[in-house]
Design a protein that fits this description.
single chain, alpha/beta, Rossmann fold, Alpha-Beta Plaits, 5-stranded parallel β-sheet, 5-stranded mixed β-sheet, 10 helices, 12 strands, globular
Length: 303
């Protein structure tokens, strides 16, 4: 890890001893802010814009689950990644945390090596996002990552999934009948549709670690770390419904609509797994969704 202290971490726990332990582990590498309550965490998140928040779940007055819900509800703090610090160990609690938008879990009592490794992983992701913005890996029309930017992120998350033996999921999405849309309304109106599609897809995601990009043309992709096929299809359905409800303005009085077909794939990869095959299977699922009538989701695991 870098010792330049380029990044700031906000740690939240109602127990001072836990804050002291975390500060001892991380302060040699990062700028550390501390908070003993959920309300104070929300204030510091808005004021200081930390790069990462470590958030205790079980706190008086305002639980960590309530805090993360408030963070994700605000545009100012929605993209700050959150790692839960907790003594809870049930699968249901972890699933709830990930559903609310957490990017990871660290369990108590703290293991120094695990804390450093997991925080370092997410700091690399934050740094990668800054690099994407800095060196032009953003699609100029939709202002989200382009294919090259996605591939860089995918390689990093794929490697992490192998190391931690965790699931990773991938969605590939295609706007239905987009050529007809362009021919009917013109390419300028098509660009409006693409921009709104990207915004709507991003707004449908729950976690800072969920990563969307423009794959090319009217195709978009989403990477979902720590997500199995059930979670992936749930997010895909949220995207599908939000796109179906999206209204695209033509002028002050007229709107148009589009739908989307989605192919989904999920895997717990190992060293022998192929990223190329993984993506190709999702692409086959997308084509199946088109064949079945469009505006639907098909899982590669069902092919």
């Amino acid at each position: 890890m870098s010792e330049k202290k380029e990044f700031t971490i906000l740690t939240t726990d109602d127990e001072k001893s836990n804050l002291d332990i975390l500060a001892g582990i991380l302060s040699p590498y990062y700028n550390i802010l501390v908070s003993k309550s959920g309300a104070r965490t929300l204030e510091l998140a808005r004021e200081k814009k930390p790069d990462l928040i470590l958030l205790d779940v079980m706190m008086p007055e305002m639980t960590g689950f309530e805090v993360i819900a408030a963070l994700k509800a605000s545009n100012a703090t929605a993209n700050i990644p959150v790692i839960f610090i907790t003594g809870l160990s049930s699968t249901e609690d972890e699933q709830r945390g990930f559903f609310l938008g957490a990017v990871d879990y660290i369990t108590k009592p703290f293991n120094n090596a695990i804390v450093k490794a997991r925080v370092n992983t997410h700091m690399k992701i934050v740094d990668q996002m800054r690099t994407i913005e800095r060196i032009g890996l953003i699609d100029p029309l939709t202002k989200i990552a382009n294919r090259r930017g996605f591939e860089d992120r995918f390689e990093a998350e794929w490697g992490r999934a192998i190391r931690e033996k965790e699931p990773i999921s991938f969605l590939i999405m295609d706007i239905d009948l987009f050529k007809i849309y362009n021919d009917t309304y013109g390419h300028q109106q098509g660009d409006v549709a693409l921009k709104l599609f990207a915004e709507t897809a991003i707004d449908s995601l729950l976690r800072a670690s969920d990563f969307a990009a423009r794959w090319g043309g009217e195709e978009f992709v989403v990477l979902l770390p720590f997500t199995n096929i059930d979670g992936a299809t749930e997010i895909a359905e949220r995207i599908r419904l939000n796109i179906e409800a999206m209204e695209i303005p033509i002028d002050e009085e007229s709107i148009t609509k589009v739908t989307v077909s989605i192919g989904a794939n999920s895997i717990v990869p190992d060293i022998d797994s192929s990223m190329k095959d993984f993506i190709e299977k999702a692409d086959l699922a997308l084509y199946k969704a088109k064949e079945l009538g469009r505006n639907r989701i098909v899982s590669a695991l069902d092919l």
